[in-house]
Amino acid sequence: MKYSKLAMVGAVLAASMSFTGIARANTLSGAYYDQYLGPYTTLSLGSAPTTAPGVAPTATFTVNSNSLGTIFNFKLPGTGVAGDWDLYNFVTYGGDSVTGINNVSGPGTDNINNGVLVFTGNVSLAAGATYDVTHDDGAILYLNNGSGWVTAINAPGATAAEDSSFTVGTGGTYSFELIYAEVNGGPAVLSSTNFDTTPEPSSLILLGTGLLGLAFALFRKNKASGLVLNS
């Protein structure tokens, strides 16, 4: 038909726009418990974990990750108790932006030694892929894809940086809660590898632009050869 080429280009554009619509950023909700030594968590079958029962957090904040494939990239490189000198710098070390705390006054300037950090959010996980969380002190990770909470990592005793890995049998979007206890002085490390493979909007726009270019090239080729694309 006479409009078949135009329809093809329109379909490619619509597809690229729909891909862009499903992209999302890595956003975490954080809570900080100053000088809190436990119990860290309770987990009831079929319900979300409850952290620090009956204890209000010292601070709550939001972290927006700026690194594709990485949710946790937090670090304080100093040593000893003095190395745990700043909550704000810990959560912004990797270039992430944070709202709710600052580095001028209040909990953002707290020394995080003997404190507990709790992060919650959503993450896209692929079946069979290996995901790593690097932590220098205790870390517990819970996941829920709608079928109930499960423990993916339970490594409460590390005093030097180590990797804890997990896989999932079913791919999809998971709610998570990660608990990190900073004890015994700095350095403080909490980072992740291979998390959230959802492309950023800019990458999807580039993909859509490439598809449009391909469609236009096919249009020019068919026009030159006298071929007609039928719908």
Structural description of this entry:
The model is unreliable at 1-25, 196-212, 214-219 and 221-231 (pLDDT under 50). This protein has helices spanning 4-22, 87-92, 201-225, and strands at residues 26-33, 41-42, 50-51, 59-65, 73-80, 97-99, 115-125, 131-135, 138-144, 150-155, 162-166, 172-182, 186-193. 22% of the residues lie in helices and 36% in strands. It has 231 residues and is an alpha+beta fold. It folds into 2 domains: 1-23 and 200-231, no CATH class; 25-198, Sandwich (Jelly Rolls), CATH 2.60.120. The chain has a 7-stranded antiparallel beta sheet with strand order 6-4-1-7-12-9-10. Strands 5-13-8-11 form a 4-stranded antiparallel beta sheet. A hairpin with a 7-residue loop joins β2 (41-42) and β3 (50-51).
Number of folding domains? 2
The number of strands is: 13
Q: Biggest sheet, in brief?
A: 7 strands, antiparallel
Structural class: alpha+beta
What integer value in Å does the Rg equal? 23 Å
State the strand order across the main sheet. Answer: 6-4-1-7-12-9-10
- The ordered H/E elements are HEEEEEHEEEEEEEEH
Helix content: 10-25%
Instruction: Quote the distance from N terminus to C terminus.
Output: 6 Å
Question: Rough shape?
Answer: globular
Number of helices: 3
Please state the average pLDDT score.
Answer: 73
Low-confidence stretches: 1-25, 196-212, 214-219, 221-231
> Would you give the CATH topology of the largest domain?
Jelly Rolls
Strand content: 35-45%
List the defining traits of the structure above.
single chain, 231 residues, alpha+beta, Jelly Rolls, 2 domains, seven-stranded antiparallel β-sheet, four-stranded antiparallel β-sheet, 3 helices, 13 strands, 22% helix, globular, disordered N terminus
